[in-house]
Write a structure and sequence with these properties.
Helices cover 54% and strands 13% of the residues. The chain is an alpha/beta fold. α3 (55-63) packs across α4 (65-72). The protein is globular, with a radius of gyration of 18 Å. The chain contains 13 helices and eight strands. The longest helix is centred in the C-terminal third of the chain and has 29 residues, at 234-262. The strands form two sheets. A six-stranded parallel sheet has the order 4-3-8-7-5-6, with helices on both faces. Strands 1-2 form a two-stranded antiparallel sheet.
Length: 263
């Protein structure tokens, strides 16, 4: 099958590395492999829809069939969450490493600057978006941002937003909106959007723009980035993380019990 007719699901790397854990599909890929696929998509103008799964999303996918379908339909699904990596390994699903969405995004900014690709930034608050644009100008003076639009638009404005993205002739699209809104947006418009590589980045603009501090590298390696986030906004986040992590432990326990019974 020629490259022009080959689907991403048939791509040798993606076909070989597709896994399933807790009923959710994901790809056992490293960061360099992920970036190579994104570069391949933009270089060859082949539409590639990217997403990630983490503990919160896995739990929500169990309760939200639409979100589960939106995630499962993506071409490339990275594992963004140490808890998912550890849990999957515990259940016998081999995953090489955590590939965090914010790190994919920042690496792709550098890739765009090197290769002349033009990103479009969609989402976050207007002042955060401006901060991201300023930081990009400092980090990558040669990078051309195709366009920007904040995330505060109504459903009836979506068609106009999509038209603006397409008119910008962007090579890639980063969508900084919360789950499940960004997943629904990308699934709904994936066949209309013209940027070759599209991905949801959640709160990554807040991090890159300096609104939210990223956990130190050691904390990230220990898988405690979620605890660092709670420490920054305890009143807003403690209950969310408590409920999500408790639900995940329950799902993991049931999965382990079922696997032991089937042995």
């Amino acid at each position: 099958m020629s490259e022009g007719t080959q689907t991403w699901s048939e791509h040798p790397l993606l076909a070989d590395r597709r896994r399933e854990f807790l009923g959710a599909p994901m790809h056992a890929l490293t960061m360099p492999e992920t970036l190579a696929l994104a570069n391949e998509a933009m270089a060859n103008r082949r539409p590639l829809h990217h997403t990630v799964v983490n503990v919160a999303k896995l739990v929500n996918m169990k309760q939200n069939a639409e979100l589960r379908e939106d995630v499962a339909s993506a071409d490339l699904i990275n594992v963004d969450g140490a808890g998912v990596v550890w849990g999957a390994r515990l259940c016998g699903v081999a995953l090489p490493e955590r590939v965090a969405g914010v790190d994919i995004m920042t690496n792709l900014f550098a890739l765009c600057a090197r290769n002349g690709y033009r990103p479009y930034l969609l989402g976050a608050e207007p002042h955060v978006l401006q901060a991201v644009d300023l930081q990009l100008a400092k980090d990558y003076p040669d990078l051309v941002v195709a366009g920007m639009h904040d995330g505060y638009f109504k459903p009836e404005d979506e068609a106009a937003v999509v038209a603006a993205i397409n008119a910008s002739r962007a090579d890639c699209l980063f969508v900084a909106m919360p789950t499940p809104r960004k997943e629904r947006f990308l699934k709904q418009y994936r066949d209309v959007l013209t940027p070759s590589f599209v991905m949801g980045v959640g709160g990554s603009f807040d991090v890159y723009g300096g609104k939210v501090a990223r956990a130190p590298l050691l904390v990230q390696k220990l898988g405690l980035e979620w605890l660092f986030r709670i420490a920054q906004e305890p009143r807003r986040l403690w209950r969310r993380y408590y409920e999500t992590n408790t639900a995940y432990v329950g799902l993991l326990w049931r999965e382990l019990r079922e696997r032991r019974r089937s042995v």
